[in-house]
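Please, why this fold?
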Amino acid sequence: MGLSATMKLTNGNTLEIYRDDFAESPREWDNLSTFYCFHKRYNLGDKHNIDHGDYSSWDELEQENFNQEDDIIVNLYMYDHSGISIATHPFACRWDSGQVGIAVITKAEIIENYGDDSPASRAKALKCLESEVDTYNDYVQGEVYGYTLLDSEGEEIDSCFGFYGYDPTTNGIFDNLDIGQEDVA
């Protein structure tokens, strides 16, 4: 864990932000979507029993395993160049990127979590899926952080790790400490 930033607070305390090198994969959490990923060198996404080699295309894999009319199925793409990125859209580099999997939310999961399969519920589920992809992208990029809060004497008074995303004003660190930008000296 390397020190990433130090911030003096107006109350005299010091906030030290560190990269969290031991972060838990967000795919270990209780997610709404399931990521079916396939890569020769990386173990990505969720555990599953689908063998990508059994299918000649992504469409065939989807047709044989999911209800394409009722389930939400979103392509997952990876960019691999001095680190990896995951997104729901293709990357511009055709040599170092491509489809790595799909994310799926079944109709049954939509109904279980949102009460029905209405367009509004499906829109909420899709927004949740996109958020899960963003969090996973933070994880695979190593953009997970924690903090140590020191008093004016340099004594530790609080610490917490596991904040996904680089910005402490949006990743939850400031919320966890109940501070705002105005509290930073």
Summary: Residues 26-116 form one domain.
